[in-house]
Amino acid sequence: MNETVKYLLDEQHLPRFWYNINADLPQPLDQILHPGTQQPITADELEVIFPRAVIEQEVSTEREIEIPQPVREVLRQWRPSPLYRARRLEKALNTPAKIFYKYEGVSPAGSHKANTAIAQAFYNKAEGVKRITTETGAGQWGSSLALAGSMFGLEILVYMVKVSFNQKPYRRAFMETFGAQCIASPSDTTASGRAILAEHPDSSGSLGIAISEAVELAAQRDDTKYALGSVLNHVLLHQTVIGLEAQKQMEMADAYPDMVIGCTGGGSNFAGIAFPYIGEQMRGGHTIQSIAVEPSACPTLTKGRFAYDFGDTAHLTPLCKMYTLGSTFVPPGFHAGGLRYHGMAPQISHLAALGYIDPRSYNQLECFAAGIQFAKAEGIIPAPEANHAVRAVIDEAEKCRESGESKTILFNLSGHGHFDMQAYTDYLGGKLKDLDYAENEVAMALAGLPAIG
Ligand SMILES: *Cc1c(COP(=O)(O)O)cnc(C)c1O
User: Fold this and answer.
1) Residues of the chain with pLDDT > 70: what percent?
2) Residue 163: CB within 6 Å of ligand 1?
3) How far is CA 355 from the centre of its chain?
4) Residue 30, domain member (yes or no)
5) Residue of the nearest CA to atom 3 in ligand 1?
6) In degrees rounded to 5, what are phi and psi of residue 152?
7) Domains: count for the chain
8) What spacing in Å lies between the alpha carbon of 140 and ligand 1's midpoint?
9) Full domain range(s) for residue 310
């Protein structure tokens, strides 16, 4: 008995345009500020680290932005990605809810991050850039950019958070296979890295520190730019292919979601699936519940402050208004490395402040339990990050069982967990613990927020 229900689109339905939610916001986003002057940053200042095309997308208010043909040519290798109805999970939960999921683990790097890596590599190449620097936490972003760099003929230099560098040798091998260079951060190759090491020789690193190292190098050389795998408007824009495809696939299924769910680290995969729907809602369409799920140990949206903050530890990046736990906060080493970031995408922060997004948080043990329940029913092992979304989905489906309501739930399965099996081994061996939210450390980090406005 095969109950797999799969909604596939053929290549010609690969989106031709990205959806830019800036066009539909009821109030515009707050401006990005220069880290030194704290005045609105100019395109020329941003061009030190980003290509021009990406900066234009960052501030654009055009609703549809064309996807360049060479980018579509690469994306079509795995896109449109499949949408599944999780019938076996529904049955296992004995729920009247209808559960659909978009599966982004089909990309060659195993997650949604390849969607923006390809686009960013294309724009850098088109503007004559030779080398891109970046950071990576769990390794998914570094893997995606390494893949994109090899496709477009760019050198890729990745600062990998030291704790992951040591824990996940296969992620490093993946990047190196594509010719990328991978350095454990903090390192002695940059002033920011050396400053951290002088103070904390045993530092296990953080995304904030790795970003400082990568930005520092990019700012030094004309042939080198920096790329970020989440948070910024252009990254979220590139991820909207997920939701745009899902809208067509849900139509094929003759369904419209009552709720859309995604996990949030910097916010890009959640934005990818939710923004096209939230946009419809803002233009007068269906009202949906959009649930952003984060780890309790790094609760940016649920416990952070909505304020201007730096994106990195050394304060080299521009200032964005966002929910933040403070740029000096180093989240504990839980196993969803991709969710260990102190800030949240400004667009998601703005929409949450306006009431369009419901944030919620879970601890890691309940998330692994949900991921395993999902894997047993659906046959796919989710990335530990995606387990947060799965936890919320199962909770909502169980609520439907209690109430008898048949809600339609759509979620983004942002990646597979094949490089994260050590985390599953630890969970199954009873070695994982729930980590508390470090209230004092966050209070200290928030006390150091820049005074602006
Ligand atoms: C990086 C990552 C995340 C978190 O980043 P977002 O920008 O919030 O999407 C979630 N899931 C997977 C599989 C990732 O690789």
Assistant:
1) 99
2) no
3) 21
4) no
5) 338
6) -105, 5
7) 1
8) 8
9) 5-13+68-110+236-447
